[in-house]
Amino acid sequence: MPVLRIVGERFARERPLRGHRVAACLHVTPETATFLRTLSAAGADVALCASNPQSTQDDVAVSLAADFGIPTYAVRGEDAGRRAENLDRVLRCRPTITLDDGADLVSILHDRRRDLLADVVGGTEETTTGVIRLRSLAARGQLRYPIVAVNDALTKQLFDSRHGTGQSTMDGIVRATNVLLAGMPVVVAGYGWVGKGIAMRARGMGAHVTVCEVEPVAALEASMDGFRVLPMHDAAREGQLFITATGSSGVLREEHFTSMKDNALVANAGHSDVEIDGPALARLAVKRRPVRDMVEEFELADGRRIHLLAEGRLVNLAAGEGHPATIMDMSFANQSLSVEFLVARAGHLDPTVLSVPKEIDHQVAVLKLQSLGVRIDALTAEQQRYLDSWSDGA
Ligand SMILES: NC(=O)c1ccc[n+]([C@@H]2O[C@H](COP(=O)([O-])OP(=O)(O)OC[C@H]3O[C@@H](n4cnc5c(N)ncnc54)[C@H](O)[C@@H]3O)[C@@H](O)[C@H]2O)c1
What DSSP letter does each residue of 104-172 carry, written as one string? Predict the structure, then answer.
């Protein structure tokens, strides 16, 4: 993670987070560990719990605590009760900064731990679903501290959401099932950055891809990008592999399960496990059994079988390893620089959802290009003058 390393080397010299306490609720992966060590090097005390129990890598959790002095409260597969306890444990550090992937810490601080709000100077949010929750809190005038929507940085969305999720989702599905994608009818629900990445990779592996959307512009984009666009009602009959990536709930539900082909596979890449209506699938099933690690078979009354991957949780993290480090390098460099930005302006920012400053996005892109050995052109003075002029070229 060369960009993060460069940022971390400067942080170690300048110690911009000295005296700050960081509570993090993120995927417990090696990339997150590298990010949190960067914040430690900047002088912060850091504690971590899991944003998703299925993505926790236990060896990483143990090493963070034992080797790097970062208390980590997470065990792979922990149940909801244990996870809630671990969120509370992280908050015992009385954070000045929160780092979320799904707005869990922010929700607790705005609900039953309002006593902690006075110390908090800012937070960051990594994913679309979290940003949606925060914007809804801000729209009601109830958000109490500024939060940078790291998710919305271009150097996050274009690469992490699109290429990172696209590749790791297909990887998780193939690891879980070992199916051949070439020639397979694949249905992708949602054509945001995540859906675009998945549809692109599935097509690249030879699948016949159909996209389902609710937004006309996104549907039009999918259509002109060369994908078939259908309502899920129709796509459900034709698909073999279904992947949800909407951030919404009940995208695949009873009316769809009852019209799917035998041996349909259903997987989710969106943040929450509510995109596929698991309880409805369980109600419809006369028999269910695990058939492979991460694959559960639901047999319907007429004998058709539907296979649910990773219990409907993020398939790229539960059945795969999530985004490659090359991708997280940019997302976590954005996170690190956004935390530095919040601390430098502590007390001077409104309690709203903020964009990642353009300079940070730009800096991350410059450093990433350098690390990849990619050189680019620069505007000549004449070109700059032409672009700045309102009369030339008229
Ligand atoms: N798996 C991962 O590692 C990973 C990475 C990044 C984001 N995410 C999550 O993936 C989800 C999507 O993220 P995004 O950035 O693409 O969001 P987005 O908001 O840009 O795109 C979502 C798209 O889904 C469409 N949609 C909403 N409801 C729908 C429905 N019922 N049927 C069909 N389409 C519907 C929307 O119109 C939108 O175009 C979010 O939950 C996000 O948090 C997951």
Answer: HHHHHHTTT-GGGGGG--EEEE-SHHHHHHHHHHHHTT---S-EEEGGGSHHHIIIIIIIIHHHHHHHH
